[in-house]
Amino acid sequence: MPTQFNSPLYTSNHPTLDAGSVQILRASGALIIGKTVTTEFAATTIGSKTHNPHDPNRTPGGSSSGSGAVVADFQAPIALGTQTGGSVIRPGSYNGIYAFKPTWGSVTREGQKVYSLILDTLGWYGRSVADLELLADVFAIHDDAPAPTSAFELKGAKFAVLNTVVWPKIGSGGEAAFSKAADLLRNNGAEVEELSLPASLDDLPHWHATVLSSDGRTAFLPEYTVDNSQISSQLVGHVENAEKISRKAQLDAFDNIAAARPVVDEILGRYAAVITPSVPDEAPEGIGSTGSAAFCTMWTALHTPVVNVPGFVGSHGMPIGVSLVAPRYHDRHLLAVSKSLLWSPMLAAIMDARGQMIQYT
After folding, report:
1. Angstrom distance (rounded) from CA 121 to CA 155
2. Domains, the chain
3. Mean pLDDT of the chain
4. Helix (H) or strand (E) holding 82
5. Which of 41, 61, 90, 238 has a CB 3.0–4.6 Å from the CB of 86, allowing a cystine?
6. How many Cα neighbours within 13 Å face the side chain of 42?
7. Is it true that the peptide bond before 63 is cis, omega within 30 degrees of 0?
8. Whose CA is closest to 115, among 176, 20, 195, 40?
């Protein structure tokens, strides 16, 4: 199938081999029905031609805009996406579907265009946690601990709510969804406490941005060299180091994030899952921009698994999700916890609160 990266430099480009993830899916019996739209190289925040199926005047998010929209619109049951900032979780929230960003490195990225080797993560969308688990099985994602043999028991489980250092960016819809999620957990027997990360990690969003720009210098040099007039100013800026990021700053960001990962793993490991916003608010109007990834980038940098759980609505009736986060390589645990929300009274309360906007299979 044509793989054009939403770039004029790759018009009519037809690779001779599938990406590694698609090879696995084909060999496992999946029917590949098509490619979906992405932003330019799955890298820019300029909107694509895809609209949100709940309101065509609003963005479906990005960069995995087409993948999120095609699942929400019932054109496909499952779709792949990639996340370097918030490009799986954000469309999941905006489109009102389940989204899963596994632990970094859990799924091969062979055959994909690289943006950042230490951030790029392949994830996927579904209309249920069972859909997410199906692909986790296909991609052989397993924790060290044996898979649970029974449903996760929500009553008495310990959760934390974490608003993160970027909380000033939250909107009224995102704040209401976050608060309602915590209330629903408490009302259904879970223990919920407030959590703050150490102040030494407050620069995580800045470190992520530094890594992104630094890795972009390398990733888009080929296209820049061929014809820099055919790539966006954002990518030109990466290659030309428009932000004047020094090599020392680059190394500091790499090393600080690496040091932060085990610290955050230990904190997350104290809970069944940590609840945090997926997005500031419902999908913004217009398709010229893909919305804010502010609440996603730190988890991408930390390499942790994240599930967007849909179920809430904003002031305009548009979907809003919340994120469940766990330590690295606790992917199946996180999916089991997420699935427990399906079988508890919590889901019924969510569905009642959001109406019948989406019918889950």
Report:
1. 33
2. 8-340 (3.90.1300.10)
3. 93
4. strand 79-83
5. 90
6. 27
7. yes
8. 40
